[in-house]
Amino acid sequence: MTDYPMDDHWHEECGIVGIYGDDRAAEQVYLGLYALQHRGQESAGIAASDGSCMEHHKGLGLVWSVFADPAVMPKLAGHAAIGHNRYSTRGKTTLINAQPILIECRTGKIAVAHNGTITNASQLRREMQESGSIFQTTSDSEIVLHLIARSRGGDIVSSVMDALKQLIGAYCFVFLTRDTLIAARDPSGFRPLSLGRHGDALMIASETCAFDIMGAEYIRSVEPGEVIIIDRDGMQSMMLPGVERKSFCIFEHIYFSRPDSLIFGEKVDKIRRRLGKKLAQDSPADADIVISVPDSGNTAALGFARVSGLRYEIGLIRNHYVGRTFIAPHQDKRKLDVKVKLNPVSGVIDGKRVVLVDDSIVRGTTMRQIVRLLREKGAREVHVRISSPPIMHPCYYGIDISRHSELIASEKSIAQIRDYLDADSLGYLTIPGMLGTVDNPGDYCTACFSGEYCTPIPREFDKYCI
Amino acid sequence: MTDYPMDDHWHEECGIVGIYGDDRAAEQVYLGLYALQHRGQESAGIAASDGSCMEHHKGLGLVWSVFADPAVMPKLAGHAAIGHNRYSTRGKTTLINAQPILIECRTGKIAVAHNGTITNASQLRREMQESGSIFQTTSDSEIVLHLIARSRGGDIVSSVMDALKQLIGAYCFVFLTRDTLIAARDPSGFRPLSLGRHGDALMIASETCAFDIMGAEYIRSVEPGEVIIIDRDGMQSMMLPGVERKSFCIFEHIYFSRPDSLIFGEKVDKIRRRLGKKLAQDSPADADIVISVPDSGNTAALGFARVSGLRYEIGLIRNHYVGRTFIAPHQDKRKLDVKVKLNPVSGVIDGKRVVLVDDSIVRGTTMRQIVRLLREKGAREVHVRISSPPIMHPCYYGIDISRHSELIASEKSIAQIRDYLDADSLGYLTIPGMLGTVDNPGDYCTACFSGEYCTPIPREFDKYCI
Amino acid sequence: MTDYPMDDHWHEECGIVGIYGDDRAAEQVYLGLYALQHRGQESAGIAASDGSCMEHHKGLGLVWSVFADPAVMPKLAGHAAIGHNRYSTRGKTTLINAQPILIECRTGKIAVAHNGTITNASQLRREMQESGSIFQTTSDSEIVLHLIARSRGGDIVSSVMDALKQLIGAYCFVFLTRDTLIAARDPSGFRPLSLGRHGDALMIASETCAFDIMGAEYIRSVEPGEVIIIDRDGMQSMMLPGVERKSFCIFEHIYFSRPDSLIFGEKVDKIRRRLGKKLAQDSPADADIVISVPDSGNTAALGFARVSGLRYEIGLIRNHYVGRTFIAPHQDKRKLDVKVKLNPVSGVIDGKRVVLVDDSIVRGTTMRQIVRLLREKGAREVHVRISSPPIMHPCYYGIDISRHSELIASEKSIAQIRDYLDADSLGYLTIPGMLGTVDNPGDYCTACFSGEYCTPIPREFDKYCI
Amino acid sequence: MTDYPMDDHWHEECGIVGIYGDDRAAEQVYLGLYALQHRGQESAGIAASDGSCMEHHKGLGLVWSVFADPAVMPKLAGHAAIGHNRYSTRGKTTLINAQPILIECRTGKIAVAHNGTITNASQLRREMQESGSIFQTTSDSEIVLHLIARSRGGDIVSSVMDALKQLIGAYCFVFLTRDTLIAARDPSGFRPLSLGRHGDALMIASETCAFDIMGAEYIRSVEPGEVIIIDRDGMQSMMLPGVERKSFCIFEHIYFSRPDSLIFGEKVDKIRRRLGKKLAQDSPADADIVISVPDSGNTAALGFARVSGLRYEIGLIRNHYVGRTFIAPHQDKRKLDVKVKLNPVSGVIDGKRVVLVDDSIVRGTTMRQIVRLLREKGAREVHVRISSPPIMHPCYYGIDISRHSELIASEKSIAQIRDYLDADSLGYLTIPGMLGTVDNPGDYCTACFSGEYCTPIPREFDKYCI
């Protein structure tokens, strides 16, 4: 399995896909997961139902390798399926937390795949343990399954509604029973979830780029608080109790989603280009060329170049054949990781005053190495420009959680960060500047920049571990 | 992974080991599992606790291969550990049912390993599902964990007692919590479980051959209905409500256990030799030599030879390097399986009247091939002698369950079986003859021979599947 | 192992690296191979010498995975090492042809790694077989080793010189003996080879991007016909008999080499940008935006945009997590391969007249799919622009050889290709136009465009196979 | 892959199989290799020809695992095939020396598989290197292929004859060309080789147990010095120049061959039983029971029991599920290896005076552990009896070569060995005693016991290594 040791970015925890009404449901989900691979590379899985029997398969690794054995896909027969890509959040590569999770309960078998983080998970878990439940994983998905199983709601739909009403936090779920597909998005709408169609089949996916590969057309976003039920009788929509305001994750536009996706009703590449343009207006640089940290900074760098009038160049070459690099005891792992992955193009860099655009800085360690590499290749000046505000607070809504101490902007001033990076100048977007690029700025969560969380955060956000 | 396609034998489902009070608990459990590998070859696992943290590792394959990565064992630190070998009972090789299962519940983390079959499992599962439980596996172990978690018993020990009281059927459990090891054997005592000691450490194992490799001395059997609790304060023994009579599995002596083990207070190789002697008395054969089907018939064949005065010879060579044999479409799998695994020694067989001893016959297909092989090598006569009575009924107490239709003795008379095998004569032990070889014949279950089951058997013994 | 089923490109067969005088020679070669991974992904290997003992390790897969086992690198001790990346040229994934090949002969042990194709290999092989040689591989490297072993030249250097003089065709070699590193480039200079330095160590690599990751500085190209000998006494240079004119492979600039490399004395990204500029001059398009096929068309597209004044946009997103995709029987493999790998950004494409830039077209099947995808996303017009002339002839100098019938430009006119691609217009560079972008156009081979081969090509260029 | 760390035995280096005239030649060879697995467990391979094309496949591991991928066998089409099992002789597990080796030379493609050791290999290799040959492996097979390729003999048969005449030492070869199978056994006849038939097909195998599984009947031994050529015209036999006397390896009877094989015209199990009987006559013991070290001592122990009148018992249980055992740093590897593999049956041993029979002692370390285990289980006395004379000299004829210092009998007297083993008594066979058990004692090599080698042994029997 490949891993990506260098990557100094926040990571989405998951991508999810669901489909109902296609004779080759699992194959379609497989393609959808392929398109959502950037949202999670540690494990992948698919559950499928043919109306009477439900099967699932999951494994560690990229989608293509988990399903590389040609004997696997044919076993996932049926007209309905859900799938999941997972990013490891706890440094531990283990199959136990891979999804979908498939269980049997009072109402029969249910499989679930989840993207997000339930902020009252610990409390719910504690309560359910008190009243006799057991937990085999640390996954929020297991919690929602318990809630469904315990509901006295009657049928599966009311049980799911019952369960969801008890959740606080960020979630997008796809559930599969023998004959029903259910998709749900939390009332704040933290994570994106979209609805698509191909022929008679209806599709659900974290991002619309999954629809493109599945040959489906985009219908609309699943609304915040919406629960969509799809079965042989068609599609039905129900709403969970509302919240004061929406809290779309702005980082989906900044970095998480693919630029070819439509997210929260807006095209990611458009927003990302606007972020670059705004950055050029607010933090111009007296320089010769604009380059990006590939591929995360590409689109914003194009926007920056447009507005600044500076030439856009490809100044860093990224090696895509990177896996778990052998590190000798005497070597500096971080330095090596960057060198293995990125190489400056000296013909572009040498003697130039360079604007270097990326989307965000977490610890700053990688950016520091990149600045150093550029200087070694002859860059006269390096002006770092970041197409988002400084990340100063952890995110509790579906991201690989960092502690404050791991966020350089939480510990240092911008000037100090500039010095740490050894950059000639450093420019971030402001929060208002960033919000000016989207249509409905009031609908977004900016907690990681502002510290203003949209939900109560449990004091001890200590992840239990099994 | 190796598999054993030829084997026409009933199979034990599992072997279990536990230890408390050894700084290298997991290493000792590993050795114990090595010795119990014959009880289950599909998966293996160990859970260990150092008093504050509990870790576990499990995988598909033989013990040595599951723990071959040198990075694994060092992670299983602590003074207490349990382990499990599992034999696949449902044709499906899957990690989900591997044990130990480790969960978190009200009283903290618990791991469990199980040998046996809970006959009221379906009913308990149905009841718990009704009241809101979810099931991720088809394992009886998950059921007992639910019962423990739901118990209002206060501490872990009373919860375990509570849970066990609700179980019907055959079980030996080892439980591990952060600071306690608990071992339990059902009141009928179907499966063997022994207690051993090495220095300050106390050990639990399905068979005493595990103690030999662990360097431990045998203390005594865990009694039917006994629950042993071991923690820093030492060992404590409690009893579950009794049953009318004990039901030791006689097949442990006939075939399941290793001849170097002490089971139900008796030495397996002694009983097995007595079975062969009794067989020679009851079903003598006018022949030249006695040979065995290696290795299952070896000890009984020695007994048969002793009493009959016939020469014991090694007439069949077993190939121990056998794995998943490639079978071309045109080949007869069963025939090939036998040929790959066994070869007659023509110098021993040619021109001889042969007594062929084995412990049991399930479907008869393998034995038929062996008789054919012996005849091809010049055997003048082949007299098949079986050191147990005809198996006529399925076992519901911890064995890979067969249907009646898969038991040749359930469908055919002894004369018909002889004809099917193409043997010159066929002799089985009688039930009384068999029981005469053990000290307390009244303590044994003979259901698979007599059909007299010691517990109610649910009409639909249909295994749920996930 | 990942593979890249979609890729409709010619492929370099190999990348090579050598180093002498670094205590961690193998580690450095490993890094160099990492940087040269784009030149070959099927197998990788390293041979190292500490002056008395030579070890080697090779395997199928990417560099990182071949050397992922932490026990491997420490075995490759010594101050001198060579390495090799290989691209499979015969559809057969086999370890037997992996390099370096390590043999023992009269002068001791020799390891060799090779990039290129010896055009008189069949003839040499036939001759040597006639006089008693045996061949275990189909590799040209084995041929040169035989020639060395048969040489009566005295020492290893004269034996190597002897051997090389008999070769016709394209080659860059690195040889390693216990105490000497030898690098050689054919007199025509088809393939690039560079010399670098880091401290006391001297390095050889196919491309200078390897030096960047090794922390080395570029000294100069190994000259066409030059043989460089490096040992404890330093470096020595010898020349093979010259040829009429040089024949640098222009495709190294067009596609093979990384843009951050310096090749044939010129910076690849500069030439590549010039090719795009020239293309814009010669084949302008009345369009709205310029996009590239990532990553092969990126730099040329930037050049095209500059000169044309059209906006450069990122219009296709490439999925880098692609492996051996599961293909169901009913699916169109080629179509799926493209969809899995590339997705148009609808916000960029929709309603636009698009210039689509790539470096070359081999069969045209992939390009046709891409045009279709763009049209589906709303492109009003698609103008395909190729930054090289039509490929009309096979290459016999180190490339995965195609037959004429596999080259669309060999079978169809440009107008026919345009129709096949369903493009609104199609523009290629002319040969003179292409040659105008390099400093010494007379030094380049253009055989694949013009059919004018620089060496005799054996009529039967039939590859022997073992 | 499993390995067998405990085994303190000499090991055969290889087993070979060949077949001509069966449409499923490779399948038959596969079965033959299965039966010969005891002769080599490190690697396995098959080469097959359909008259025009030759393919081969080889890999590390047991036969079943090397050919477990169902895609492999169908590729080995044709009516002729050869196969090979190899035992690693140099502690290094490497694919490079796996056989068959397939090469192309003047006369076309040839594959070869070899059992034995060419004692003048170093000299031949040196000479051929001097005249320009290269060597990629350390295998004797490569040497013979060079000799064939260099022969001016005209056709392949005369070339093979030419080559073989230059060899000194022990060898059995099977060669495969596109249309011919050739088998050869050295004039001294060190290693066994047999000829069999099944329908129109002719078979060659190291041992006749391979014929049993292939459904073939034994015809006769390939004679010492005989070369058998099989092609579409049938079978032809030629003789190499003779030697003074034959030198059959007596150790094939003592330990190497399977007891169900016919070797050198005699049944192995018969000889092995006679060795035990002779041992009982020459070295009787005042004891209660006879047990064997399974499985190597089984047959001799039966013979010992017969003559001595003592009861034969199964006193040691061997665990056949043993692989690469995890060894913690603090553990004694050798001690653990024995414990994991063997366990005494206390009911058999306790209070008894035990005769312990095995076939040979190399270093004595394992036997010492076994004696200790028996004493721990209550054996009152342990009388070790060995069914061969003390091994005092290395073997240079196809065995994993030991140095004198690794042979306990080369360093210590019998009394000293007894003390080292902590045995109550120790008895070996004498050389005449041993030879008395075979029909033609003058035909056997006893060099490892007597030091009288049948061929000149090069002073420096230093194995070159690649």
Topology:
The structure is a homotetramer of 466-residue chains.
Chain A: E1 14-20, H1 25-35, E2 43-49, E3 54-60, H2 63-66, E4 80-86, E5 101-105, E6 108-118, H3 121-130, H4 140-150, H5 156-165, E7 169-176, E8 181-185, E9 194-198, E10 201-205, H6 209-214, E11 217-221, E12 226-231, E13 234-239, E14 248-249, H7 251-256, E15 262-263, E16 266-267, H8 268-282, E17 289-292, H9 298-308, E18 311-312, E19 316-318, H10 333-341, E20 342-344, H11 346-349, E21 353-358, H12 365-376, E22 381-386, H13 408-411, H14 414-421, E23 425-428, H15 431-435, E24 444-445, H16 447-450
Helix pairs in contact in A: 4-5, 8-9, 10-12
Structure description:
The structure is a homotetramer of 466-residue chains. In chain A, 28% of the residues lie in helices and 26% in strands. The first copy, chain A, has 466 residues and is an alpha+beta fold. In chain A, the strands form six sheets. Chain A has a seven-stranded antiparallel β-sheet. A six-stranded antiparallel β-sheet of chain A has the order 5-6-7-8-12-13, covered by helices on one side. Chain A is globular. At the A-C interface, α1, α2, α6, α9 and β18 of A face α1, α2, α6, α9 and β18 of C.
Name of the CATH class of the largest domain in chain A: Alpha Beta
Could you say which overall geometry of chain A the principal axes of the C-alpha atoms support? globular
State the separation between the terminal residues of chain A, measured CA to CA. Answer: 23 Å
- Alpha-beta classification of chain A: alpha+beta
* Greatest contact between two chains: A-C, 58 and 58 residues
Report Rg of chain A.
22 Å
| Count of spatially separate domains of chain A | 2
CATH architecture of the largest domain in chain A: 4-Layer Sandwich
The neighbouring-strand order within the major sheet of chain A is: 3-2-4-1-10-9-11
Secondary structure: number of strands of chain A: 24
Task: Give the helix level of chain A as a range of percent.
Answer: 25-40%
Mean pLDDT of chain A: 92
CATH fold naming of the largest domain in chain A: Glutamine Phosphoribosylpyrophosphate, subunit 1, domain 1
Largest sheet of chain A: 7 strands, antiparallel
Count up the helices of chain A.
16
